[in-house]
Amino acid sequence: MPTDTLSAKLPRKPAVRATPRFDPRRWAAAGSLAGLFGLWWLATHFGWVDTLFLPAPEQLYQALQRLLAEGYVDASLWQHIGTSLLRVLLALGAAVLTAIPLGILMGLNPLLGAALDPLVEFYRPIPPLAYLPLIVIWFGIGELSKVLLIYLALFAPLLIATAAGVRRVDKSRIQAVRCLGANRWQVVRHVVLPSALPDVLTGLRIALGVGWSTLVAAELIAANRGLGFMVQSAAQFLATDVVVLGILLIAGIALSFELGLRWLQRRFTSWE
């Protein structure tokens, strides 16, 4: 009997629809956020906390509408957001261009790593506000000082994570590629970088978190725009709604970066 005829006579299984799997972690995350929002609403509407110290959710919505319509201190809300984003992205670009290559060199060259590691570990624990006055004295109060302060906060975590990722690369893979005639650049490109990519992306996530936390300190340097400036200026006038809204905007943008980097990790390091 022909194969086509036989397959036509065999009973076919009904198509089974893929049902979404229940993920308790998503429900736990949504539940914690909903519980926090509910507690916030109850505390402000039943007088548990004075709205001068913690504004109600509808007050934040009104503050958002006011900022979108009128701006804040001669700049629109989008200009404040764009200025802060530009400072962080410039610092991030400089950190990626310097910390990742230097981290690769430190990971491949133990002597260079031993020479630079004490210098990095010396400045890494120092809070940015501690060397902020020195940066102002050296570089003035312009944009360079703000970007440099954020850059210094980003540099160390990314450098340390990259060097650690390179040191963990399987040496047998490097030797195998060299036996096939690959030069040093080809080894770095095809073996070292892909193997160290999970650590690099993890370091980038940590660095961005530190960078956003440094943003407010950076915008203390004679700034007239930026989310950090808006928060600091509003705090001086006890405009708590603007302060909380600015904090939530900073957190929301930082969360967007975090989710984007998590997607990159799933997309390019799914083999891990």
TrEMBL record:
Keywords: Cell membrane, Membrane, Transmembrane, Transmembrane helix, Transport. CDD domains: TM_PBP2. It is a multi-pass membrane protein. GO terms for biological process: alkanesulfonate transmembrane transport; cellular response to sulfur starvation. PROSITE patterns: ABC_TM1 (PS50928). Residues 81-261 form the ABC transmembrane type-1 domain. GO terms for cellular component: plasma membrane. It is found in: Cell membrane. Its main location: membrane. The chain crosses the membrane at residues 27-48, 88-110, 122-141, 147-166, 203-223, 235-257. Pfam families: BPD_transp_1. It comes from the Bacteria. PANTHER family: ALKANE SULFONATE ABC TRANSPORTER-RELATED, MEMBRANE SUBUNIT, TAURINE TRANSPORT SYSTEM PERMEASE PROTEIN TAUC. Belongs to the binding-protein-dependent transport system permease family. This is Taurine transport system permease protein. The lineage of its organism: Bacteria, Pseudomonadati, Pseudomonadota, Gammaproteobacteria, Pseudomonadales.
